[in-house]
Amino acid sequence: MQADDLFCFQPVYEHLAAAGHQDWADEIRGAIESAIALDQHGNLSQWMEARRQLPSGPKSLHVDDGRIVVGSAVMADTDVLREQLMGFHPWRKGPFRVGGIDIDTEWRSDWKWNRIADHVEFRDRVILDVGCGNGYFGWRMLESGARMVVGLDPFLLYVMQHEAIRKLAPAGAANYVLPVGDQLLNREARVFDVVLSMGVLYHRTSPVDHLQSLLKVLQRGGQLVIETLIIDEPGQQVLMPEGRYAKMRNVWFIPTLEMLTLWLQRTGFSRIEVCDVTPTTTDEQRSTDWMTFESLPNFLDPDQSSRTIEGYPRPVRAVLTARAAR
Ligand SMILES: C[S@@+](CC[C@H](N)C(=O)[O-])C[C@H]1O[C@@H](n2cnc3c(N)ncnc32)[C@H](O)[C@@H]1O
After folding, report:
1. pTM for this model (two decimals)
2. Whole-number CA gyration radius for the chain
3. Taking the domains of the chain in order of start, what are their residue ranges?
4. Which class is domain 10-324?
């Protein structure tokens, strides 16, 4: 299973062990082995083969106008490389340029990055990014001086997209995507300076349990970044969709800002700041050649774009920061 540096998370385990949490490192290692062995969708070997076929030429990584650029244009036949990268469809978070090929992802994650970057101190920090997708933000954080970024995402396709990017990035880059979910944040282990949870809260059946699990692993005084769908109305309200929200099956609770602030206070966070509130537009989230399924334009009411297709307020997202008060 372990080809070259595929699924190489040793520095993460060492960080946890050095902080006195060898047993947690062992538990996470076991959960990762199980997730890989279980391979719920049965596609892992196909993605591993797609990654194996990627060129292994000169490794490099930089950010160009919000795009993560790895490898160089001369390293492969363009048509072949495009086909290989399409093996990892759908590409949701980005953009990337891989071996000279632009991957125009469903989301302009660079726009989200611009909303958080000025509100967080990344330099020399050890960072946890829960629900990190393919690790796009981890590269941005490394570029902003982070010491190590540990991403968690249970969806193996996104983990493999990250492993594909890593193959062309300089060896030893400290941006990791572990194939596990927030269920593994199950103990008091204050080992992260900054914890991000972006686009995850409304997917959890118990949002307060999610916030508590983030608090448990954050250093005292450490910074939390929460990015979530909100209902952009006054008061302490929460929307629980009756079924789907914007065609998503797994949306449970969408709070107003005041309700989210209360959740954060009750959980043990202080110095709560609202950094940004932005309605999601069809320029930011849309189908592309690299994500050919339906996207936001299909999720809105065609006659009333202020509403989702189910009649709920259309997606508005907020970024909040807070400090671990205890
Ligand atoms: C809406 S995406 C957000 C991705 C990225 N953080 C961003 O802001 O663009 C939600 C991500 O959370 C992941 N996810 C779902 N359940 C999770 C869980 N229990 N723990 C951690 N991540 C989870 C999904 O696989 C998906 O990649």
Report:
1. 0.97
2. 19
3. 10-324
4. alpha beta
